[in-house]
Amino acid sequence: MTLTQSPAPQRSLQVALGERSYPIHIGPGLLGDATWLSPYLAGRQVMIVTNETVAPRYLARCRQGLPEGLEVEELVLPDGEATKTLESVSRIWDALLAAGFNRRCTLIALGGGVIGDMVGFAAACYQRGVAFIQVPTTLLSQVDSSVGGKTGVNHPRGKNMIGAFWQPQAVLIDTDTLLTLPSRELSAGLAEVIKYGLIRDVGFLGWLEENMTALRDLDASALTQAIERSCTIKAEIVAEDETEQGVRALLNLGHTFGHAIEAHQGYGNWLHGEAVGVGMLMAAELSQRLGWLSVAEVARTAAIIEAAGLPLLAPADMTAEDFLDRMRLDKKNVDSRLRLILLRGLGDACLHDETPSGLLTELLASFPRR
Amino acid sequence: MTLTQSPAPQRSLQVALGERSYPIHIGPGLLGDATWLSPYLAGRQVMIVTNETVAPRYLARCRQGLPEGLEVEELVLPDGEATKTLESVSRIWDALLAAGFNRRCTLIALGGGVIGDMVGFAAACYQRGVAFIQVPTTLLSQVDSSVGGKTGVNHPRGKNMIGAFWQPQAVLIDTDTLLTLPSRELSAGLAEVIKYGLIRDVGFLGWLEENMTALRDLDASALTQAIERSCTIKAEIVAEDETEQGVRALLNLGHTFGHAIEAHQGYGNWLHGEAVGVGMLMAAELSQRLGWLSVAEVARTAAIIEAAGLPLLAPADMTAEDFLDRMRLDKKNVDSRLRLILLRGLGDACLHDETPSGLLTELLASFPRR
Fold first, then answer.
1. Which of residues 250-269 of A touch B (CB under 8 A)?
2. Chain B, 42-61: which have a CB under 8 Å from a chain A CB?
3. Residue A259 designated active-site
4. What is the torsional sign of CA B60, B64, B69, B73?
5. Where is the 3-dehydroquinate synthase N-terminal domain (chains A, B) (predicted)?
6. A5-19, A44-58, A214-228 — which is least confidently predicted?
7. pLDDT of res. A336
8. Nearest by CB to A128, which of B94, B104, B164?
9. Which pLDDT tens digit goes with each residue over A125-159?
């Protein structure tokens, strides 16, 4: 773990995927500066897609960051996970076709994970694939969903069930956008930051324990370091396993449980990061029941999740059976085998498909509820 | 041009695309024989998707060609190009989710080009990509759409506007299915066969002129040879240029004009191959106006299209402007430049974006109408 204590204003990483490689640029003031978007435009046609919450704050600044002489369209969708549907993506396709956009157009996803996932999927399938740029404006999308090319929408029967692997041309993370982020959403983003420590980097977990207050106080230096370290780990894993045949599944720590909560509670009622926080704690407790984590390590996991301002209790109205019903549809499962990401230690996640079902049911039944 | 005169019952080709390579098997009796489907199944969950016309003829036989012990689902969609919509693909996703199918499932596309395109697109986006097998039952899909991984659906504003490049695990062409194909659809398929001669193989064009009667009489040997030669040319071009950055665009000879006819007339009223036939003749005439083809070569083009039983006249109610409006949306265009596939000679197609617009408008205005 080597984080410098005084970061330069802009940091850049590379996601190494051969001819699909792309940079992640992190820093303040990227949004309105034309030097950042220009190199990644495929042609003269550009559509900025954002939502009703982000548009009044950042749409004008984003547009200002485009060079002169382009054909620029804007599309403002409703906000929220409940809008992450095929119907919303169809609205993007309709707008692209109405504008006569061709295969050399570029979509810009300006917003959080919902916008990034939908715009990426729209780009993946418009005329069989066009360019897009991720401009994530929430911590969660900056450290997770904007990197790695997972795109898609939800289906009433499951989260992200329809989608594609489609890599952006670049990810532009303007850390200034976090200054207007509601604290509940900041906490949700911190869940994914904690995840990187839990799955791969116990040193980073220690750094987070020391710096959690600074992060929640929006300390620019701490945020930049947390984002950079998170993106670095994500980029490494994605470069190893772009389409999740193996190690990439580890990024789903807490997500199998978390997706079940989100789907059961109705998308948007629990934030994704909140559900993942509880899900990571469930994974830690199950790992402890398997003899892999100590009680103290589970307590340490709970403490950092709580320090991030995240809930520790599962929804009151969800039975063990409710969890299992949703978890059986998880994309990681192979044939009828349930596969879970668990912790062999802090900073050491593994994919496990041999959890005795009694142990899992017991955990789900006894886990504290609200 | 070396076509053997007595083909073996089964022929196999390979589409060389690195780790996405796959075989094309051609011959009679493949459908009910379990040796053909089994090697290409990703797991134990299989869904056969077909349409109302094909189901009574071949669904039972296809199912019989699956090994024992699988979880098999069937989905029968309505028939016709008008059904090639996002809504139909959504029905496939709904059925997959209702059946609890996971990422290791396999879709089988049993039918013509519409089924193949939709099932391929459904496979491309279900859980970000699952396996599928093409089992084309029309000549058109056997020689063209089932090979090369172009999948997708139509949009009211344009054909194949929403889709993905997604390669099948295998293409199984049972030539017996042509015995029940209506002659109008056989002719439509022959348009794409003729296309291969026109773009890349004047020797094959000569062979087609000699064997057109045998082909239309469903001579098994002639059909097998025509399919094999067509698939070979298509596989070569796809291997060179999977995502149509260059040479693959040549496969669109006649399609820019043809798509305009299909879209203007309402999908399904003109068969795709019929529209392509007229489109190829338009391309030949425009090539002649550019000084590349002789009048005799255009006449030879018209003669082989007519011999295949295809129309030579454009729709009476389509003006030059109607054509241009539709053609401007073509996926090959870059920025606002119209790109056409034309013929520098018979068997020698090229991508051209410098056709004087006056010449094009003149051709469109003067081309014979019904």
1. none
2. 43-45
3. yes
4. negative
5. 75-187
6. A5-19
7. 64
8. B164
9. 999 999 999 999 999 999 999 999 999 999 988 88
**β-strand partners of A67:** none
Would an 8 Å CB–CB cutoff place B90 in contact with chain A?
yes
Question: What average pLDDT does range A230-242 have in this prediction?
Answer: 96
CB of B165 less than 8 A from some CB of A: yes
Helix (H) or strand (E) holding B340: strand B340-345
Is B80 flagged in the annotation as binding?
A: yes
Mean local confidence (pLDDT), A53-60:
97
Whether A244 is a known active-site residue: answer yes
Pairwise CA distance, residues B321 & B334, whole Å: 20
- pLDDT computed for residue B267 by the predictor: 72
**Given this model, what pLDDT does residue A157 score?**
83
* Average pLDDT along chain A: 93
Query: Which residue among B68, B87, B128, B354 is the active-site one?
Result: B128
Cα separation, A74 vs A63, whole angstroms: 9
Task: Tell me if A178 is assigned to a ligand binding site.
Answer: yes
**Shortest alpha-carbon distance between residue A256 and chain B (Å):** 14
A296: confidence class by pLDDT, cuts 50, 70, 90: very high
pLDDT at A2: 41
Q: Cβ of A334 under 8 Å from any chain B Cβ?
A: yes
What pLDDT is recorded for position A9?
66
pLDDT at A10 over 90: no
Q: Active-site residue B128, yes or no? A: yes
Residues of A in Cβ contact (< 8 Å) with B121: 125
pLDDT, position B1: 39
- Domains by residue range for chain B, with CATH: 11-180 (3.40.50.1970), 184-366 (1.20.1090.10)
Hey, are the CB atoms on B125 and A152 less than 8 Å from each other? yes
Distance CA B350, CA A261 (A): 55
Mean pLDDT by 10 residues, chain B (370 residues): 49 94 94 92 97 97 94 96 94 96 96 97 98 98 96 90 98 95 96 98 98 95 95 96 92 95 87 96 98 98 98 96 88 74 97 92 96
- HEC states along B305-322? HHHCCCCCCECCCCCHHH
A90 touches chain B (CB under 8 A): yes
In total, chain B counts a number of residues equal to: 370
Which DSSP letter does residue B78 get?
P
Which range, A21-35, A43-57, B333-347, is most confident? A43-57
Q: Give the CA distances from residue A25 to residues A15, A174, B57, B265, B275, in Å, rounded to whole numbers and listed in that order.
A: 11, 8, 57, 48, 48
Is A255 assigned a ligand-binding role in the annotation?
yes
Determine whether A289 is an active site residue: no
- Per the CB < 8 A criterion, the answer to whether B275 and B258 are in contact is yes
A351 in contact with B at a CB cutoff of 8 Å? no
Instruction: Give the list of residues 6+ apart from residue B178 with CB closer than 8 angstroms, or none.
Output: B138, B139, B142, B186, B218, B223
Q: What is the pLDDT at residue A258?
A: 96
Q: Is there a contact between A125 and B334 if contact means CB atoms under 8 Å apart?
A: no
Catalytic residue among A19, A68, A87, A128: A128
**Residues A290-307: what's their mean pLDDT?**
98
Q: Inter-chain contact A331–B243, Cβ cutoff 8 Å?
A: no
Pick A124's closest partner by Cβ from B94, B160, B164: B164
Per-residue tokens: B90? 């959504």
> Using CA atoms, how far apart are residues A327 and B298, in angstroms rounded to an integer?
62
